[in-house]
């Protein structure tokens, strides 16, 4: 997909016409992480296939809609169903919704994902606050002609995750007795899972968790000067010495069990923003 200001404007105007007025916080929900939506009041829903110029969701775990409403005393817009490189989307498609939410007026972005634990001190069912990341997806959502029209081409990534929001999330977690690890997220293409040798490589590189999303959205948030925080729900343990075949249904189930804690953190953070 090419990116044009007109396309963005068409998407934004349509959503405004559907009552998506001045949201303050944008949220991207990861695989198996849809329960947050149940906490949103006064919902307005726009399916991706109704939004002009919007990519369409394909994976069976993603329902593919933007949901607007009230959460933690703020107007929020939530992306239920994200786009992945492994589905055949390009980086511009994957990050298009972040640009649209920014165009609607969000001031902060929260991102979630399901990931595998590389750091074996972390266990399945744990949550990890992302402090930094490694982009192993072989491309960038900013590598296109005319990116300068949308923001600074050479976007600084010295602190890609907002320190203030991360600190708030850490203090909320300790107040509520929720275990929140912190670490480095490596983003790969997928959709195949990693080999034992790849898990060893990721550990040597300094990754604490691995997944197939998130990094493109974080890069674009930084391009837009949009403060962002992200949490990984760790759904499996990637121990190369004792590697069992992965059962996707089990990953979804573990994500679902851990998710209420993530909802609690996000909701409390939104109240404080």
Automatic annotation (TrEMBL):
<dbReference type="GO" id="GO:0009116">
    <property type="term" value="P:nucleoside metabolic process"/>
</dbReference>
<dbReference type="InterPro" id="IPR011268">
    <property type="entry name" value="Purine_phosphorylase"/>
</dbReference>
<comment type="function">
    <text>The purine nucleoside phosphorylases catalyze the phosphorolytic breakdown of the N-glycosidic bond in the beta-(deoxy)ribonucleoside molecules, with the formation of the corresponding free purine bases and pentose-1-phosphate.</text>
</comment>
<dbReference type="InterPro" id="IPR035994">
    <property type="entry name" value="Nucleoside_phosphorylase_sf"/>
</dbReference>
<protein>
    <recommendedName>
        <fullName>Purine nucleoside phosphorylase</fullName>
        <ecNumber>2.4.2.1</ecNumber>
    </recommendedName>
</protein>
<feature type="domain" description="Nucleoside phosphorylase">
    <location>
        <begin position="25"/>
        <end position="271"/>
    </location>
</feature>
<dbReference type="Pfam" id="PF01048">
    <property type="entry name" value="PNP_UDP_1"/>
</dbReference>
<dbReference type="InterPro" id="IPR000845">
    <property type="entry name" value="Nucleoside_phosphorylase_d"/>
</dbReference>
<keyword id="KW-0808">Transferase</keyword>
<comment type="pathway">
    <text>Purine metabolism; purine nucleoside salvage.</text>
</comment>
<comment type="similarity">
    <text>Belongs to the PNP/MTAP phosphorylase family.</text>
</comment>
<keyword id="KW-0328">Glycosyltransferase</keyword>
<dbReference type="GO" id="GO:0004731">
    <property type="term" value="F:purine-nucleoside phosphorylase activity"/>
</dbReference>
<dbReference type="GO" id="GO:0005737">
    <property type="term" value="C:cytoplasm"/>
</dbReference>
């Amino acid at each position: 997909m090419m990116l044009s200001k007109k396309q963005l404007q068409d998407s934004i105007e349509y959503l405004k016409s559907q009552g998506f007025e001045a949201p303050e916080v944008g949220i991207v929900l990861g695989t198996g992480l849809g329960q947050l939506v149940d906490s949103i009041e006064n919902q307005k829903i726009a399916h991706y296939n109704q939004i002009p110029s919007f990519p369409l969701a394909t994976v069976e775990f993603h329902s593919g809609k933007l949901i607007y409403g009230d959460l933690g005393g703020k107007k929020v817009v939530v992306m239920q169903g994200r786009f992945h490189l492994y589905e055949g989307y390009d980086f511009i498609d994957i990050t298009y919704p972040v640009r649209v939410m920014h165009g609607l007026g969000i001031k902060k972005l929260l991102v979630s994902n399901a990931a595998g634990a590389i750091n074996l001190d972390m266990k399945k069912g744990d949550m990890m606050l992302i402090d930094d990341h490694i982009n192993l997806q072989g491309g960038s959502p900013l590598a296109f002609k005319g990116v300068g029209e949308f923001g600074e081409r050479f976007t600084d990534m010295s602190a890609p995750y907002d320190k203030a929001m991360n600190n708030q999330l850490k203090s909320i977690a300790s107040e509520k007795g929720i275990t929140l690890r912190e670490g480095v997220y490596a983003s790969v293409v997928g959709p195949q899972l990693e080999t034992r040798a790849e898990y060893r490589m990721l550990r040597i590189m300094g990754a604490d968790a691995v997944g197939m999303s998130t990094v493109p959205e974080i890069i674009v948030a930084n391009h837009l000067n949009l403060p962002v925080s992200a949490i990984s729900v760790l759904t499996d343990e990637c121990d190369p010495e004792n590697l069992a075949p992965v059962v996707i249904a089990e990953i979804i189930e573990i994500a679902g069990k851990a998710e209420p804690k993530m909802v609690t953190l996000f909701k409390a953070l939104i109240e404080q923003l």
